[in-house]
Amino acid sequence: MKVLIVGSGGREHAIAWKTAQSSKVDKIYCAPGNAGIEEYAECVNIGAMEFEKLAAFAKEKEIDLTVIGMDDPLVGGIVDVFEAEGLRVFGPRKNAAVLEGSKAFSKDLMKKYKIPTAAYENFDNAEEALAYLETAKFPIVLKADGLALGKGVLICNTLDEARDGVRTIMTDKKFGTAGNRMVIEEFMTGREVSVLSYVDGKTIKTMTSAQDHKRAGDGDTGLNTGGMGTFSPSPFYTEEVDEFCRKYIYQATVDAMAAEGREFKGIIFFGLMLTEDGPRVLEYNARFGDPEAQVVLPRMKNDIIEVFEACIDGTLDQVDLQFEDNAAVCVVLASEGYPVKYEKGFAIKGLENFKDREGYYVFHAGTKKAEEGIVTNGGRVLGVTAKGKDLKDARANAYEAIRLVEFDNKYYRSDIGKAIDEAE
Prior knowledge:
D-amino Acid Aminotransferase, Chain A, domain 1; Phosphoribosylamine--glycine ligase; alpha+beta; ligase; EC 6.3.4.13
């Protein structure tokens, strides 16, 4: 098979790495890709939002399967464009990707089908949102309705903070058109857990659990980012929690989308909060998480192409999804100043240290090739992942592994997986 992967981040590198292991695949392309993905794929200079060019490329190269890694093209309808051209593609159509594309839609869906989530109200008018805040309990959560690179969520402890937040999202449009509408919801307390799943429209198969670290600084301080690290599995995701989620959240979401005429095929990422009153849905994503993919895919035993095809063909019920009985931790190496302002173009040294090192991986996010070799080209530069017999072992291995690679202005959190200690 010839496979095309659309995207350019650490998630797409992890997908390309896993795809390269498939006995079904002879050739991989990635558009636009990055310097690390080039190890497994031929990178093509076509942007992820250039749907017509991507479809034309897929036809020209006789691509057998296209895998959409990113949220923007999915929400924009790339799957519909490919299907209209008779091309085989993995990911939800536009009317299903709205599950991630609109927080107001997803909240209304959960309310209608009684899927556990936080109490909320939707607003498309800043003045109405400000008036609502006068009667609200604090802390409270403000969410831009649309896609905002994982950064469009504000937790406000006071009325003044919340007023500023409404203006930031809806008046100043800090997150662009994503802030044309917004959701105001109750603040939930508990442990956050991420559960990714494969879906074929009717059957859902969940992957192993993970936990992300969104804030830029140690101790969950600083601004929200795309993710500073993650670990898998989560010790807080117990059999009891899993049983509840399977009964009231996972299948219920797939069935709700089908009932709405929005058949979902692809990945549903469930962002969960484990509250005192049971698990609640924080958010949905319509693709692999980043950096969750970097700890989940190295633990997956299955041929990823077989799973993708089962999702497309509606035969996921025949797949026995299996994961290794171990753990993985990913520490993101970022550019100092991320997610606000940072410099690019610094040479990266030591990448060769990961060659043939069993259980250690370096996934590229913001990198590119230059005359002096591979250089930094983004806020999140690399995701260093290590496996271990358990979470403590994996965390120790990951922090040891980040010493193998260096670049100027390297920044990382020193407490990824600290919650592992609290689980004991």
